[in-house]
Amino acid sequence: MELLSTDNQSYSKAHYLLIVILFGAFLTSGCGITIPKYTSIHSEQPPNYYLGESPNIKVVQAEGATRRMQDITIQELRNQSRSRGHFTIENSLSEGIRFDSRDGKLVMTGKETEVNEEDVFIKFNVIASMKQDKRTTVTRPAGTLGLQEKQVPAMVTIMPVAFTLTRGDEVLLNERQYNGQRVWTIDENGGGYPSDYRRRFEAAIGQAVDKFLTEITPKTVSQDVRLDYSDEKQKPMLDAARDGQVKQAATQLEEYVQNNPNSASAVYNLAVLTDALGDYNQAIDYYDKALSLGGKDYYTDAKSSCMRRMNEQDAMNRIDTAGNPDSTSSNIESQDSNSREEQNSGNKPGDGGEDIEWIQNTLNSLGYECGTADGAMGPNTHSCIRSFQKAHDLKVTGSINESTYNSIVRETK
Fold first, then answer.
1. Which residues pair with 150 in a beta bridge?
2. Cα three-residue angle 69-75-78, rounded to 5 degrees
3. Looking at 77-167, which runs of residues are DSSP E strands?
4. What's the Cα-to-Cα distance from 358 to each of 349, 368, 379, 408, rounded to whole Å?
5. Residue 316: which pLDDT band, with cuts at 50, 70 and 90?
6. Nearest to residue 178, comparing CAs of 196, 204, 142?
7. Residue 124 forms beta bridges with which residues?
8. What is this structure's pTM?
């Protein structure tokens, strides 16, 4: 009995010790280690066709389908652009501007004053069509309880809308077609057209307009960036930033950094908040300084994200000799303005006839990552060109000018 009592006591002590160890481990994992906290950084990614900071966008010509369908297209353009919150589109059909193609060039008529760089003109052509595709079906519930399924033949409403888009004297799009469509079953309403077929036309037009606006509207993206909470003195400022008071917190943290210039966490956190405020160049400087003071691994990740945002912003803001990203060369001639000098007929990059696909292939072969050679001056291509320019002590613009082009040519010899 005495031996059993001793064993029981030993078991109780061991059990108690195990509980203490487990509880201590819980405290260590839950409270002893600082939980990473983040702040959201909002940035804009460039669209395929950048229209500038404050474009003056006008619908000046409408064709195709019926007048009602044209009015619906204009209404969708105005409503959807307004809801996206980046720019507004106005109905300017009364100005009498028209676009025609002559000798392979887009000719503008009816414009009394010279076109400004911020002027953006839209022409569209609505092509309404209805077709029945026997391969198109819709799955519907079947059976008494609706637990079974049946395939019902369907009709497809297709609404192609072709857009012509110009910015200043540049042609960005020329009769580019965007297809909107809606599917409906042919047995609705006893067969034939459904009672709401007009709404389906409108919905298809809205989808085509949405595809078009997606190509010209910058997209706002959010990304969470980790803050460094290792210094308790910074906690009130960082908490304020996470609550939305980023600018105020950045001001306080800047003063803190002045008093603690060797604090890697303070400089890093200031970099994150500066990044969140959109001052990417200054943020990069802070990130570099924080890393030089012995930063942590996630400092490097935050800096890389900031550099990507900065490159995307540069792609939107840069309007130089290479023109707009993904744009075609300028070829609008105005009948109502003074005659302009003929463009240089040379086909050399930087003169308006650049072979972007050749440049992409060449830079890829030289070890610069342009991605797929698609002939479009997108963000990847601009970033690739910047890398080449930095490596060859050229002016870093991200676009092809004569000096950059000549340098690329020399590298291929």
1. 140
2. 145
3. 89-91, 98-102, 105-109, 119-126, 129-142, 148-167
4. 10, 13, 17, 11
5. low
6. 204
7. 62, 163
8. 0.55
According to DSSP, the residues that pair with 179 across neighbouring strands are: 160
pLDDT at 60 over 90: yes
Residues 338-345 have a mean pLDDT of 36
Measured CA to CA, the distance from residue 123 to residue 59 in angstroms comes to: 6
Residue 188 burial by Cβ neighbours in a 10 Å radius (0-12, 13-18, 19+): middle
CA distance 285 to 274: 10
Give φ, ψ of 200 to 5 degrees.
-75, -35
d(CA 302, CA 272): 8
Q: CB 303: neighbour CB atoms within 10 A?
A: 22
Element (H, E) at 5: helix 2-27
Q: Name the residue among 230, 293, 231 with its Cα closest to residue 262.
A: 293
pLDDT tens, residue by residue, 219-257: 777 778 889 999 999 999 988 888 878 888 899 999 999
pLDDT band per the 50, 70, 90 thresholds, residue 93: very high
Of the candidates 35, 301, 332, 397, the residue with the CA atom closest to the CA atom of residue 165: 332
CA atoms of 122 and 252, how far apart (whole Å): 47
Query: Are the beta carbons of 166 and 61 closer than 8 angstroms?
Result: no
Cβ-contact 185, 153 below 8 angstroms: yes
DSSP 228: -
3-state secondary structure of 63: strand
Q: What is the tens place of the pLDDT at every residue in 128-181? A: 665 555 556 667 677 677 677 777 776 677 789 999 999 888 888 889 999 888
Place of tokens 């400004």: 116
Asked whether 253 and 275 are in contact (CB, 8 A), the reply is no
Contact 161, 201 (CB under 8 A): no
Q: Compute φ and ψ for 107, nearest 5 degrees.
A: -110, 130
Q: Which of 313, 299, 310 is nearest to 270 (CA)?
A: 299
- The span from the CA of 277 to the CA of 251, in Å, is 11
